[in-house]
Specification:
CATH class of the largest domain: Mainly Alpha
Strand order of the largest sheet: 6-7-11-10
CATH superfamily of the largest domain: DnaJ domain
Helix content: 25-40%
Strand content: 15-25%
CATH architecture of the largest domain: Orthogonal Bundle
Structural class: alpha+beta
Largest sheet: 4 strands, mixed
Low-confidence stretches: 1-5, 95-108, 116-127
Number of helices: 9
Number of strands: 11
Shape: elongated
Radius of gyration: 31 Å
């Protein structure tokens, strides 16, 4: 006999049959966070529900699998299934099938014809139903530097097994240098087990990157605000600036304005494909004291002769 049909994946996720992909994704993430084994240690009920939720999402997030399931049910998930032959069979039954397949064959021939390479449900000559395992999705949260420079992380998942159960497993995930927030890493064969000798599904690790206290990222370029004094801005100076791999000395030219970007080539985020790394831009921010006493303010008045004349004259032309 073939495996018993799964529980309705729409009911598992709590969505309607006409739910769009965003609604399905939101429902999955909400349930996965609530039911994850790390949140519910030693809770077999939550572990079983987490497995069902993962299976349901793997099916409904794949448009082709979802469409086939909606039309034919679970039998359509077999990789050898032939949808057109299934439609012909449905028409044959609907037209008054009385025990023989179209063309004079028996019901065994009819079910064998539904599969493009001779496979078929258990109990028929094609052997047991061969079905690929479900794909899984998990969230992997990385520190900013780890995402930029790469590394390796461990991820604990619940992998559905072919017998309908599940097992908790920790897998190693190689982080390519330069992976961005919202990116995805695919681990082939780390999804649920296949049925009837079918291949396992894949695991998709969705990347979330924690913000950095100093750096901002735009594609492969990095930006960092560098505070300097008024004197350093007027006379120029040398300033130590952090990078992903250590500190570097940057020359601030005399007369530098606030907001000036000093470019450090190749000090940004490495390319995942091994190409040229991005740049680091040190954005100058002139900082002024705010607690001067009367004597200090008088000294500033004495230096007013150095002010740029007609500094805001351009405003009058607008």
């Amino acid at each position: 006999m073939a495996d018993a049909p799964r529980k309705d994946p729409y009911a598992v996720l709590g969505v309607s049959r006409d739910a769009d992909s965003d609604a399905i994704r939101r429902a999955y993430h909400k349930l996965a966070r609530e039911l994850h084994p790390d949140v519910n240690p030693d809770d077999k009920v939550a572990e079983e529900r987490f497995k069902r939720v993962s299976e349901a999402y793997a099916l409904l997030s794949d448009q082709e699998k979802r469409s086939a399931f909606d039309e034919f049910g679970e039998i359509a998930l077999d990789p050898n299934f032939d949808a057109e032959r299934a439609r012909q069979a449905n028409r044959a039954f609907g037209g008054g099938y009385s025990g023989g397949a179209p063309g004079g064959g028996g019901i065994e021939d009819l079910f064998s014809n539904l599969f493009s390479r001779g496979g078929g449900p258990a109990g028929f000559r094609g052997g047991p139903l061969r079905r690929a395992g479900p794909d899984l999705e998990a969230t992997l949260t990385l520190d900013f530097s780890e995402a930029a420079l790469g590394g390796e992380q461990r991820l604990t998942i619940n992998r559905p097994t072919a017998d309908g159960g599940g097992r908790t497993e920790t897998v190693a995930v190689r982080i390519p240098a330069g992976v961005a927030d919202g990116g995805q890493i695919r681990l082939r064969g780390k999804g649920g087990e296949g049925h009837g000798g079918g291949p396992p599904g894949d695991l998709f690790a969705r990347i979330r990157v924690r913000p950095h206290a100093l750096f901002r990222r735009e594609k492969r370029d990095l930006y960092i605000d560098v505070p300097i004094t008024v004197k350093e801005a007027i006379l120029g100076s040398k300033v130590d600036v952090p990078t992903l791999t250590g500190r570097i000395t940057v020359s601030v030219p005399p007369g530098t304005d606030s907001g000036t970007r000093l470019r450090l080539r190749g000090k940004g985020v490495p390319s995942p494909s091994g190409g040229q790394a991005g740049d680091l831009f040190a954005v100058v921010q002139i900082k002024v004291p705010g607690d001067l006493d009367g004597a200090a303010k008088s000294r500033l008045d004495e230096s007013s002769e150095f002010d740029i004349p007609d500094l805001r004259k351009s405003f009058e032309q607008r």
